[in-house]
UniProtKB/TrEMBL annotation:
Record GO terms (molecular function): acyltransferase activity, transferring groups other than amino-acyl groups
Pfam families, sorted: Acyl_transf_3 (PF01757)
PANTHER family: ACETYLTRANSFERASE, PUTATIVE (AFU_ORTHOLOGUE AFUA_4G08520)-RELATED
InterPro entries linked to this entry: Acyl_transf_3_dom, Acyltransferase_3
Keywords assigned: Acyltransferase, Membrane, Transferase, Transmembrane, Transmembrane helix
Spans traversing the lipid bilayer: 21-44, 64-83, 95-116, 196-222, 234-254, 266-286, 307-328, 334-358
Protein name: Acyltransferase 3
Acyltransferase domain span: 17-350
């Protein structure tokens, strides 16, 4: 996150509460992928009836779809804050954004190749046991060569929007297109035109089903209107609850007879998911107790690890965790919980290594290039 706001949305220091939100969202994605792989029944039931945990705001704890919507909205907020100061800066900023996304994606793709090569049958064995359709997004033996992992991580995910080495990398294409959208728009728009353009993007992209770009536009809109936000605990709580009901409810409820069942069938679907993510962000910004919760040191640490966590967790799930699951199957609920805890610990450890070895050095290099590039452009 860039330097924006601290204890109030209109301040000029860092918005640390949103760092914490990003960390929580990363953990949600880990839970989503783990249980979709090893206990998929509730995740693949697309015609649920009645009311269960998946139909409540508690689903925010494992709803990976909603977590990704939060990521996109937060990216829109961040990109609006770091937008080019002139049209001449836009190519530089967009180029740096590609490397910001591409280098970690490349390293994680190589890491995924290494894990899959070490446990080539694990994903297939677990799929045979659990019948989880999620594994169709993972390469199974024979594993393609390292050269393909390098290509898909550095280029393929941006061109095709998918890879079966490390399937969360599908979001890299959306992240890059969203970056072009925000940086390009901000390079040519000034002042009051920006919030109007972002509002139009939110509505227009939603109407055309381009939900990631709608989330980017909405996040930038929240950034533009942040100075109008005021602390209000009650209003923030209600806005946050509305956001969770609209967006964090797991999609797939049956559209049965009656208005309530029909309305339930829309909760958590594309469009409402992104609106819900934006409402949650606004709620955190204006609700002091919630803001302080997300500013707590443990969540700040998670926020710093959020991108590494996102990049490394699936290779751990589809390879070593899958190997253990297949070897010990059937697992009791307690044993599955233990495997989940071990996977989370492994993800944190590998994510911390990724942070030190890849993330921080890359950010330092990109910062130096950006500073030097801006100085040269200013001298022209």
């Amino acid at each position: 996150m860039p330097d924006l706001a601290g204890h109030s949305p209109s301040a000029t220091s860092r918005v640390t509460c949103l760092d914490g939100l990003r960390g929580v969202a990363a953990c949600t994605v880990v839970a989503f992928h783990f249980f979709y792989a090893f206990a998929p029944a509730s995740f693949i039931d697309r015609q649920r009836v009645g009311i269960g945990l998946f139909d409540t705001p508690l689903a925010v704890l494992w709803n990976g779809y909603f977590a990704v919507a939060v990521f996109f909205a937060l990216s829109g907020f961040v990109l609006a804050a770091s937008a080019p100061k002139s049209t001449r800066e836009a190519p530089l900023m967009i180029g740096l954004r590609y490397f910001r996304l591409g280098v970690p994606a490349l390293v994680s793709s190589i890491l995924a190749w290494a894990w899959l090569t070490s446990f080539p049958e694990a994903a297939r064995d677990v799929q045979a046991i659990t019948a989880s359709p999620w594994f169709r997004w993972t390469y199974q033996a024979p594993i393609p060569p390292l050269s393909q992992a390098i290509w898909e991580g550095a280029v393929g995910v941006f061109v095709n929007g998918t890879t079966r080495f490390n399937n969360p990398l599908w979001t890299m294409q959306a992240e890059f297109f969203g970056s072009v959208l925000i940086y390009g728009s901000y390079a040519v728009l000034r002042g009051h035109a920006r919030p109007w353009a972002m509002a139009l993007g939110l509505v227009g992209f939603t109407a055309f089903g381009l939900f990631p770009l709608a989330a980017f536009s909405g996040g930038a809109l929240v950034y533009e209107l942040r100075h109008r936000l005021r602390d209000h605990a009650l209003a923030g709580s209600l806005i946050g609850l509305a956001g969770l009901i609209l967006g964090a409810t797991f999609p797939g409820h049956a559209a049965g007879p009656g208005t309530l069942a029909y309305a339930q069938s829309w909760l958590g679907t594309g469009g409402l998911r992104e609106i819900g993510a934006l409402l949650v962000i606004v709620a955190i910004l204006i609700t002091p107790p919630v803001r302080r919760f997300f500013e707590a040191p443990p969540l700040q640490r998670l926020g710093e690890l959020s991108f590494p966590i996102y990049l490394v967790h699936v290779p751990l799930i589809v390879a070593p965790a899958a190997y253990v699951f297949a070897a010990l199957a059937p697992l009791s609920p307690l044993a599955l919980a233990g495997l989940f805890a071990l996977t989370c610990l492994g993800t944190l450890a590998l994510g911390a290594l990724f942070l030190v070895a890849v993330e921080r050095p890359l950010l330092a290099v990109l910062k130096a290039v950006r500073t030097r590039g801006r100085a040269r452009l200013a001298a022209l």
